[in-house]
Amino acid sequence: MAPLVRFAPSPTGYLHIGNARPALLNALFARARGGRLLLRLDDTDRERSTAEFARAVEEDLAWLGIVPDLFARQSDRAAQHDAAAERLKGQGRLYPCYETPEELERRRRRQLGRGLPPIYDRAALSLTAEQRAAYEAEGRRPHWRFKLEARTVAWDDLVRGPAHVDCASLSDPVLIRADGTYLYTLPSVVDDIDLGITHVIRGEDHVTNTGVQVQIFEALEASVPVFGHHNLLTTADGEGLSKRLGHLSLRSLREAGYEPAAVRSLAVLTGSAEAVRPVASLDELASLVDLAQISRAPARFDPHELDGLNARLVHAMPYAEVAPRLAALGIPDLAGEAFWLAVRANLATVAEAALWWKVVAGPVAPVIADPAIAAAAAETLPEEPYGPETWKTWTGAVRERTGAKGKALFMPLRLALTGLDHGPDLAGLLPLIGRDRAARRLAGETA
Ligand code: GLU
Fold first, then answer.
1. What angle do CA 428, 434, 436 make, to 5 degrees?
2. How many alpha carbons lie under 13 Å from residue 44 in its C-beta half-sphere?
3. What is the pLDDT of residues 278-330, one digit of tens each?
4. I need a surface site. Which of 299, 301, 330, 442 has the fewest CB within 10 A?
5. Distance (Å) from CA 351 to ligand 1 centroid
6. If we measure between CA atoms, which residue out of 22, 96, 14, 91 comes closest to residue 58?
7. Which positions of the chain have pLDDT values less than 50?
8. Ligand 1 centroid, distance to 9 Cα (angstroms)
9. What does CATH list as the number for 371-442?
């Protein structure tokens, strides 16, 4: 059966590179197997979820190259969540509790003081109907806990191999808050069941949830999906990624000019068995991902690695792919492929091509560092047409006339022709600058 996987972010902030990891691992898993991807917005936190963040999730995924096959929103599925909650209540697996946070905290401290694990003591299970009625009369509303079976839940994890959670050591989790809203735990299971999710691939911060959720799947008499828990991306100092690290949001990376392929490569290959390297195509990246080979250690990365990955992708980028983007940068198609081939090796981002177009087309304020060389260059400047060999012939003539060579020859020419002391190979730029502009710049004119 073709897999159906899901990426399930909460629309409470912008996706960052750490979220790109599960998004891509799911998308690539489906892609490699002819499966499908569901985008599920986990928007049960109504106060923090916004329509703007929801839109941004879809935009940012599209930028990464992920177009989900199916879409669901948890807030549209309240009736199904309620039905499942009623079913669990009917089975006695979901029970009402009336403790306030302060009471729970006091109990927790008492347990810790006695050297006991701070597990919820299930006091609410022994409340009589009168006691419950008395709480209700006081205006207390219950929160609802799922009664865990005290057993170990085991599964064969796609990433971690044989895995287990000892549910006897966990507190019964709260599934419904006192205000009637759901925590993510139950709706996630209900949606995974109803939508037919076959594989749940998510961060290892959800391993304990899996122990709980497997028990919920079973209580709802549904088949349990296959689980895989990948390591989380962390910065080099081991700091986890939170929405606070705004500069690593997919939007800011996009605005900074990073290629989606650079972000994809870093988000997926870090902490895998493959070397982190630029992989331009999604299909190739999909063929490289083997969940079973993902490391158990945190996937540490340095955001600066993006620079190197990006540059390498840009340097190898074919003109056909970049042409519309050059047009969007306001670079006319006059020089076409020749311009791109002349400058791409000097670019950290595609957007920087605009700077070099300005150097070609002008106006450039030349720097005449060595008037004698500028004069000799002007006198020996060849007639057009210019080709790839023109630069060599011309600088040979200037060398002969002035005796200057190496840097002493090339730097004054570069400064005069471009106004800058660095840049792409002039053999490629000169034909684009052309004779007229070159002559004027050598004469010290802004052109
Ligand atoms: N909304 C949850 C999260 O972002 C989804 C976890 C899951 O994939 O089940 O952590």
1. 155
2. 23
3. 999 999 999 999 999 998 888 888 889 999 999 999 999 999 999 999 999 99
4. 330
5. 35
6. 14
7. none
8. 6
9. 1.10.10.350
Residues 6+ apart with CB under 8 A from 100: 140
State in Å: Cα 131 to ligand 1 middle.
36
- Residues flanking ligand 1, CB < 6 Å: 8-10, 42, 184, 188, 202, 206
Atom of ligand 1 nearest to the CA of 10: 1
Comparing CA positions, the residue from 63, 58, 69, 57 lying closest to residue 31 is 69
d(CA 254, CA 263): 9
Among residues 46, 41, 36, the alpha carbon closest in space to that of 15 is found at: 41
Question: Is 243 annotated as ligand-binding?
Answer: yes
pLDDT for position 46: 86
Where exactly are the structural domains of the chain? Answer: 4-79+182-233, 235-315, 317-361, 371-442
The predicted pLDDT at position 11 comes to 97
| Confidence at residue 328, expressed as pLDDT on a 0 to 100 scale | 94
pLDDT at position 336, please? 82
Q: H helices within 73-184, ranges in order?
A: 78-90, 101-113, 129-137
Pick the closest to residue 195 from 225, 162, 164 (CA basis).
Answer: 225
Phi, psi (degrees; rounded to nearest 5) at 161: 75, -150
CATH architecture of 4-79+182-233: 3-Layer(aba) Sandwich (3.40)
Asked if residue 4 lies in contact with residue 197, where contact means CB atoms within 8 angstroms, the answer is yes
Predicted local confidence at residue 245, as pLDDT:
64
Amino acid at 374: A
Ligand 1: which residue has its CA nearest to atom 4? 9
Give the CATH number of domain 235-315; options: 3.90.380.10, 1.20.1250.20, 2.120.10.30, 1.10.1160.10.
1.10.1160.10
